[in-house]
Amino acid sequence: MTAASSGHLDRFGQVIYPEWPPPLEPPDDPRAEPSRPTHVDPFANAWTADRLMAEEFAPPRWAVPGLIPEGLSLLAGAPKAGKSWLSLNLALGIAAGTPVLGEVSVDPGEVLYLALEDTPRRLQSRMGKILGDRPAPAGLTLLTEFPTLPAGGANAIRGWLSGRRNARMVVIDVFAKIRGASPTGVNPYDADYAAMGRAKRIADDYGIAVVLVHHLRKMGADDFTAELSGTNGIVGAADTIMALKRPRGEADGVLHITGRDVDEAERAMRFDPDTGTWSLLAGAAVDHTLHHSRAAILAYVRQAPGATPKAISDALGGDRESVRKTCGRMADDGQLRRRDGGRYYPPDTATVPAVPESQNPA
User: Fold this and answer.
1) Number of domains within the chain
2) CA atoms of 328 and 326, how far apart (whole Å)
3) Contacts of 62 (CB under 8 A, 6+ apart)
4) What's the pTM value of the predicted model, to 2 decimals?
5) At CA 273, angle to CA 269 and CA 277, rounded to 5?
6) Can you give the CATH number for the domain in which 320 is found?
7) Distance (Å, rounded) from C-alpha 229 to C-alpha 326?
8) Is it the case that residue 30 has pLDDT exceeding 70?
9) Do 161 and 101 touch, CB atoms closer than 8 A?
10) Measured between alpha carbons, how far is 110 from 140 in angstroms, rounded to an integer?
11) Is residue 158 located within the same domain as residue 264?
12) Which of 150-154, 249-253, 297-301, 320-324 has the least mean pLDDT?
């Protein structure tokens, strides 16, 4: 698809189509004749700094204010961490226009949910638990089978979006089921970036959020984006990256967030197995994920910043050497800050900033 044949380039190099909906992507066919190159002046839509600063742009549309803006988002997690439950919670809330995660107001809109690791029976059971006595929203479309993006899936999603100007989000659970096979002879980074690019073009062309549910590696890393399965091509192509981490058998977890239109943050969350719902928890994420001894130390240090292990052990009644070692480990794990020759301070924490409830245009 070229700008010359389908539309023209705007000042950012994005394709502007003469009419809605954007045209469908041609299917991949290695036997097809290559199209003749079309000359496009790369400076035709250049900005000068003063003109760019004077321009007024519409704010991004949010599927979930403060968490999921328009564009391509990754929601990653270990197996059975609850990422599919979280995706279904968000999809149902947006389709019904009801608050999600216990407190976040959303604008209503239609949602396409590709639950490619589920069966209709399991989806019905999960939705029944989440909805309780509430009616199921008609604005949520669900499928459990779908072609891969290069084999017609991309065009099928575009076709669904074309007649739905009020669409807010497309969820693909999981990305591995729909990305398609990598072309022969293409290095893994380029293959990952190209596969992500198919989903990103849909998000950008239609101005909606496309959420790809993905997996984390078994090995941890200091930077949670390095834990995503695949190459850096996966990370580089995404606009927003979220990693859901929940220790096995525990209700509390942490949603790690970073992206182009969201601030980097960690949000504590709790899963209720009786209702199948996720909700945000108040306070710093670290407060909800520590074992009892570490939580007690952190609570004391918050009240007495700069405390020494001796002061902490005297206040809490623990063994001084054990407290000293625990404080050191907590500092290594980023749960405390160690300064001034062995004094301990609370960690730096970040929270998702508040977003006006109605940044989404009607």
Assistant:
1) 3
2) 5
3) 68, 69, 70, 106, 107, 209, 355, 359, 360
4) 0.72
5) 50
6) 1.10.10.10
7) 32
8) no
9) no
10) 6
11) yes
12) 249-253
Specify whether 297 is located in the same domain as 237: no
Residue 15 included in any domain: yes
Residue 343 falls in which region: left (phi positive, over 0), alpha (psi -120 to 50) or beta = beta
Shared domain check, 299 and 192? no
CA distance 296 to 108: 42
Residues 260 and 332 both lie in one domain: no
Q: Residue 327: which of 313, 317, 315, 348 has the closest Cα?
A: 313
Tell me how far apart the alpha carbons of residues 75 and 242 are, in angstroms, rounded to a whole number. Answer: 5
Do 187 and 89 share a structural domain? yes
Question: Residue 240: inside a domain, yes or no?
Answer: yes
Judge whether 350 lies within some domain.
Answer: no
Residue 267 sits in the same domain as residue 299: no
pLDDT tens for residues 169-228? 999 999 999 999 888 888 999 999 999 999 999 999 999 999 999 998 766 666 788 888
The CA distance from 342 to 87, in Å, is 43
Whether 11 and 155 map to the same domain: the answer is no
Instruction: Look up the domain containing 257 and give its range.
Output: 62-285
Q: Residue 101's closest CA among 93, 110, 111? A: 93
Residues paired with residue 16 on neighbouring β-strands, in sequence order: 8
230 and 92 together in one domain: yes
Distance CA 231, CA 192 (A): 7
Please indicate, yes or no, if residue 355 is contained in any of the structural domains. Answer: no
Strands (E), 233-349: 240-245, 252-259, 265-272, 277-280, 337-339, 343-345
CA distance 267 to 85: 17
Single residue among 285, 315, 333 that ends a domain in this structure: 285
Is the pLDDT at 354 greater than 70? The verdict is: no
Closest-CA residue to 73 (of 64, 81, 82): 64
Which two three-digit tokens encode residue 95?
């389709």
Maximum pairwise Cα distance, the chain: 79
Amino acid at site 127? M
